[in-house]
Amino acid sequence: MANRCLNLEDRSFLTPSAPMDGIILPDSGHGLVMGGVVAEERAIEEAARKIAGAKNPTIFPGPLVLWKSTPDSVRMAEAVVRLAHAGAMKIIPMADYRPKYPKINPEEEINPSHPNLTIWHNKIDVCLFVGVHCHYSNIALKIIRGGTSCYTIALCSYAGDDEAHLTIRDLTPGTVDRIATEVARMRKG
User: Fold this and answer.
1) How many Å apart are CA 23 and CA 173, to the nearest integer?
2) How far is CA 117 from CA 143, 157, 176, in A?
3) 3-state secondary structure of 135
4) pTM for the full model?
């Protein structure tokens, strides 16, 4: 699953979806690393290792972290900032990618944060999605995986995202803080 891109054997022009490669979402208490189900702690350690070893790790927080104003989302945003500091990570917000009907401004709505162009332009080698709606992260992660060499991490409040190289499900601010603690420990050593 490392870089499933153009499959010349079956002459497809699109990146195969993860389920087509037999990838299944993990059960609660588990994550996915390169398509394999692992214990959540192992996924946290691998995410921290990738972030700590990256040249240009970047967090892409979505609307569920940026705009949702509940006590849980505020705690999540604070945890994301702690992770960014621990990993010396850039933050590029995915502020809002939903079309606004009935009037659409094509310059804003048709070309929101385009994932692979953003990865290329910023030379991002590890990206982390958090608080991004499932339908958008699924497509964006597939585009990134198929068109770049960037390692993708998806932190998900629900079942995880099988299109990411690494995903952790049932996300809480405590999980993000565990990743941040592990990243800080690895960067010191």
Assistant:
1) 26
2) 10, 26, 26
3) helix
4) 0.84
Question: Residue 77: in which H helix or E strand, if any?
Answer: helix 71-86
Q: How far apart are CA 138 and CA 161, in angstroms?
A: 7
Contact in structure between 42 and 31 (CB atoms under 8 Å):
yes
* DSSP-based three-state secondary structure for 127: strand
Write the pLDDT tens digit of every residue in 140-178: 888 888 888 999 999 998 999 999 999 999 999 999 999
E-assigned strand segments in the chain: 30-33, 36-39, 57-61, 90-91, 126-130, 151-155, 166-168
Residues in contact with 34: Cβ distance below 8 Å, sequence separation at least 6, in sequence order: 1, 2, 165, 166
Rounded to 5 degrees, what are φ and ψ at 130? -145, 135
Domains of the chain, first to last? 29-96+108-188 (3.40.50.12640)
- The pair of structure tokens assigned to 64 is 């569920």
